[in-house]
Amino acid sequence: MSDMEKNESIERYREGLKKAADCCRQLGAAQKNRQWNQIAFNLEGILQKGMTIYRNKSISRSDALAMIDNRVKTMKAEQNGG
Fold this sequence. Notes:
Elements: H1 6-31, H2 35-55, H3 61-79
Helix pairs in contact: 1-2
């Protein structure tokens, strides 16, 4: 079994979400239920956000840790009443 390359991984991600959105639309048409179209729309949003993350430059470890520390402080402040 061979390892998946970076490009193959993102291609599977993209094709999988496109296929899932298409299936949702087909279900919506078959069941005459518009909620499936909303799910398809949400899946396409997830696809776009994932592709944006894939294309962006990665953040450094120190930046990531600073973001986590900041979020922890915010959550503690919220738990203590603001």
